[in-house]
Structure of Altered inheritance of mitochondria protein 6:
Amino acid sequence: MLRRVLGVLAVAGAVLLTAGPATAAAEPLPRAHAHNDYEHERPLLDALDHGFTSVEADIYLVEGELRVGHDPEDLRPGRTLQSLYLDPLAQRVRQGHGHVFPRSRQQLQLLVDIKNNGAATYTELDKVLASYRKMLTSFHKGKVKPGAVTVVISGDRPRELMAAQERRHAFYDGRMSDLGQGDPALIPLISDNWTNHFTWRGEGEMPAAERDKLRQIVATAHRDGQRVRFWATPDAAGPARDTIWRELIAADVDHINTDDLAGLERFLRAHDAARAAAA
């Protein structure tokens, strides 16, 4: 009897181990963006485990490699965009029959922040992305073809170079100056520094004028087929951050920026549960 029980437990354990990688990603959270994702213990994988659908990686072109890190002193040979992000995503998309998230068509946004030599780094990145084109959203002859992963270029962005390409496997991260005049086939995302446009930091009520401004920004972007993200929003756990996040959701901001993966996941799942209960 003991041997039979142990055998059953062994089989169950093997099933769980086998199932683990295929079900690692939580139910996707469309608004969740992992700022400086590469600084987490398990880049990309931690974000996916928390259901994040957008991740951010800073890159430098060094000795022919697209190395990932926030500052030059953080860079290491072999710690590249391919090894940390593109290769794991390609494997996941193959295993998921064309999708990043099991049982979901939710895309993943890979925001690539170019930190040096914009045109040269993008040129190398463009070559690299061509090898992963089967999983990527692409632009060709004026048309966008959706893929499981959409790469958006931030930081030192060579706009003219990108705009002149007949075929692209990446898109341009716009700023508030692009609002209302950008082509979503080139600029699907409008990102900007929260503190450049709003004085409110989550304490007390959001001023009515700033609330109206936020909602007008989002409405204009959505009218033009673009998404909205702000960085530098308060990110220390507490009531002020929760209040900011509630206002961002109420305004229908597409991506909420955080370094606290678990904190934002808890917040968004609680918000979704409360909304479902009230429906």
Summary: DSSP finds eight helices and twelve strands in the chain.
